[in-house]
C-alpha cells in the first residue's frame, strides 16, 4: 500500500548574479520542464573537478527570477498555514557572501523575503482581525541574543517537561505597519553594532508571531545563517576554531533537516543551540523551505553547501518513495559515524551463505557508483566535514568505498573463500594501516540488494548521545556556572543543565502558569559526552605501541611477500580479469570472484617476484612511511585529550584544539596540523620524534 507523504523540507537554490560576466566558472542548471520542473539538477563547470556530479534539488531560482516570484511560489502557501496555527520556516544557507542576507533581509530599496512576507502577513492579519508581533535574535558562539533589546540580552533556551521549548528573555514586539517593522529590522545595526565588537559570525533569525485575541496561532521564522567557509582557509579573518564552531552549528541544522525530511525516528535537535531553540518551530511546522544561496561563479564552499542541500532533498525523496527507507538511511548514517569509538564498536555483520555473497557481488559491481554517491551526497557533516576541499571529498568517497569493499572482503574471507586467503589478509593489513579513519560497516541484505545497516549502531553524536539524554536529562559542567537573571531565579545557560524548580510562563490565554522545566543540555555538553565516549574507547594501545606493532606487521609482511607464490593464472584473475573471465577458471569459486572484484590494486604491495630488491625495498619503505603517517593521523582523530598529550609537542591547549577541530573535520593530512598553530617545520618535527621513538 502506498503511503502518501509530503516532504517536510523543500530544498531550493537561489543564484546570486555573477560579479564577473566573463568568468567561465559558472554553475549549470538543468530544468527539464522550465519553471514547472519539479526537480532540477545543478552541476559545476567542466573546469571544476567535481563537474561530473549532478546535484538534485526541488527547484532553482536563477538571477532572472525575482524575489517576488519566490514569495508567490514558495512562501504565500506557508503564510496561510501560519494563520491556521501551523509554524513555517524559511532558512537561507550557503557559503560566505552567497547572498543570504540580501535574500532574507534585502535592503531599503530591494526588499528581502522577510520584509515582503511581513507585508503580506500584515494585510492578512488586518483582514482577519489578528495581530502580528516580531522577535529578532542572533545566535553567536552558541549563545542566543535578543536583537530587539538595546543591550542584546542573552536569551535562555529552556525545555519543558513535555519537550516544549521556551525562549526566556526573547522580546516579542507588536508590529502594526511595514514601516514599523523596517525600522526595527533595519535599525538594528545602527543601534547595536559597537566598533569594539570583534568580528564574529552569527545566525540571524526573525520570528513573526500571529495571534488571534489571546490565542497564539502560528509562527513564521526566517533564518539567515552564517556563511559556511572552510576552516582551513589561510586568509580568513576568523580564527579556525571560530569557523569550526560556526560550521558545526551549520551542520547540526542540516542534520536536523535531513532527519526531518527523511522521516527518521530520531531528529538530532540537541546538537547545537540553534537546533535546540528552533526545535518547536521545525517539528511543528507545515513545511520548512531551505534556500541554498549559490553564487553563479562556483566555489569550493558553495560546492559543499549544495552537496549537503542535495542530500537533504534526496532524503525527502526517498522517504516519500520508500516507506522502508529507514534501512537505507542507516546506510548513510553508518558512514557518518563520528567518533572512532562508534566506528570501532560497529559490529561487522557476516552473512555467510555463498548464495548471498553471489548476490552481493552483483550488487556491489552495479552499485559501486551508488555507494559512492550515497556516501558522498548523503553523509552528513562528517562526510563533508572530513573533506574540506574537493580532493579530500573525493578521496574520502574513495575511502568510504574502499571501506565498504574491505568490509565485504572481510565478510567473504571469513566464509569460504578458497583461493588466496593469505593474500587477502595480507592486503587487508596493508590497507587498514593506510586508511586514516577506520569505519567498519555492517552489511545486511535489504530486499534483493545490498544495504548497509547500522541499526545496532549509534549513528552520529546526536543520536548516540541523545539516547542517554531524555528531555529531562540533567548534566552539569564545571566550567559553566549558573547565571542570575532578572526574574531572580537562578538558572543555567549553555552547557549547564539542571532541573529548574518552577518557572513561570504564560499560557495561550496569557494567564500565568507554572511549569516544571528542565534546563537544556547544549552542544558543549554533547562535546563533553562525545569526548567521554572517546575517552572510554581510548583504552586502545598508545601510539608508540601501535606504531611498533605496525612496524612488526610490516616486517612480517615483507617476509611474507618474499615467500608469496600464487599460481600464475589466479594472479591474473585476481588483478586484471573481470569476474566473468575469472569464472572460467574452474577452480575459482564465486566468492573468490567477489574477492577479485573487490580488490584495490593500488593498495597491493609489489611482490618481489618480478621486482629488484631495491624496488621492493623502496616500495616497502614508502608504504611504511604512509602507514606510519596514517597511524599517526588515526591516533590524532580518535584519541582522547589525555592520550593526545602523550604525543611529543602536544600540550593541553593543542590537544584541546585537536579535539575541537576534528569534531568539525577530521585531520586527513599531516599538514592539517597547521590549524592548531604549528608551522610546517614543527609538524615534521613532531612526526620525526614519534617515529624516532619506535627505535629507542
Ligand atoms: N541577488 C543579488 N543581486 C545583487 N546583488 C546581490 C544579490 N545577492 C547578494 N548580492 C550582493 O552580494 C554581496 C553579499 O551578499 P550578502 O551580504 O547577502 O551575502 P551573505 O551570504 O549574507 O554573506 P555572509 O556570509 O557574510 O553573511 C552584497 O554586496 C549584496 O548586495
Automatic annotation (TrEMBL):
GO terms for biological process: microtubule-based movement. Residues 453-472 have a biased composition (Low complexity). GO terms for molecular function: ATP binding; ATP hydrolysis activity; microtubule binding; plus-end-directed microtubule motor activity. It comes from the Eukaryota. InterPro entries: Kinesin-like_fam, Kinesin_motor_dom, Kinesin_motor_dom_sf, P-loop_NTPase, RuvA_2-like. ATP binds at residues 94-101. Residues 452-488 are annotated as: Disordered. Residues 8-315 form the Kinesin motor domain. Keywords: ATP-binding, Microtubule, Motor protein, Nucleotide-binding. PROSITE patterns: KINESIN_MOTOR_2. Belongs to the TRAFAC class myosin-kinesin ATPase superfamily. Kinesin family. KIN-10 subfamily. PANTHER family: KINESIN-LIKE PROTEIN KIN-10C, KINESIN-RELATED. This is Kinesin motor domain-containing protein. It comes from Capsella rubella. The lineage of its organism: Eukaryota, Viridiplantae, Streptophyta, Embryophyta, Tracheophyta.
